[in-house]
Amino acid sequence: MKARGVAAIAASAIAALCLANSPEAFAGQPCNDSPLTPAVLQTAMATAQRVTGDLDRRGVQVALLGRVGQDLSKYGLKYSHVGIVYRSAPGAPWRVAHLLNTCGTNQSDLWYEGVGNFYLDDLFLFDTLVMVPPEDTAKALLSRLSDGQTLRAIHDELYSLVAYPFSTRYQNSNGWVIETVAAASARDATIRDRGQAQAWLELAGYKPSEMEFGTLTRLGGRMFKANVAFDDHPDSLRFAGRIRTVTVESIKTFLKTQRKGWDIFEIPGRR
């Protein structure tokens, strides 16, 4: 990427950091305030440059990006959080739309920021999972991303890290993305709200990831963490310590089964 491209990524990251005087927002990693080091900034900018350069070469306008916010290997998972990267036209700046949890609360909001800033959240690894939609879904996604009201029709402010994917009580970051993808993918109906998006996903064969939690983990999470709730899960699952939620891995598995193929690949980070 040319120098001005790198400068644009850095500028967008710095601008986003300047907005961080408002309550901090996190997704896919613990709620903490780690200082930003020059090494992390350099790695984040280099990762953004590598990812957007790859998208440029492929002629992509919109894609899903998965990042590794924390080590989830004990659950058999790698990527913790997914956002939607897009640009309004060829040559236009790249931006990421994603749902973030306001630190220490059960609230969330949609954030729009530069790609560099997407990699500045104290990540465990800088590997990236890229999921590129087929042309018709890409057009529908870009249309939704250009209309804030339509985009927010699929957003719910009440947040739970382990939100059940077939309930509208709470929403997590990955749930917002797959419900937005559902709204952009439906050809036999118009999806206007979360309930309709979830119904479409269930009919289309989406299967959430399942994890097992001990009773103490479940009770501790509910009692001491505002952003973790289990009361939206069916009793038969939660009383057995089984939690089903939307993960990046379950999104990837679902998209691989779709009639019109998604292009899915990884971009390794620096080691």
Automatic annotation (TrEMBL):
Highest rank taxon of the organism: Bacteria
Stretch forming the signal peptide: 1-27
Keyword set, alphabetical order: Signal
Pfam families documented for this protein: DUF2145
Keyword Signal among UniProt keywords: yes
The name this protein goes by in its record: DUF2145 domain-containing protein
Taxonomy of the source species: Bacteria, Pseudomonadati, Pseudomonadota, Betaproteobacteria, Burkholderiales
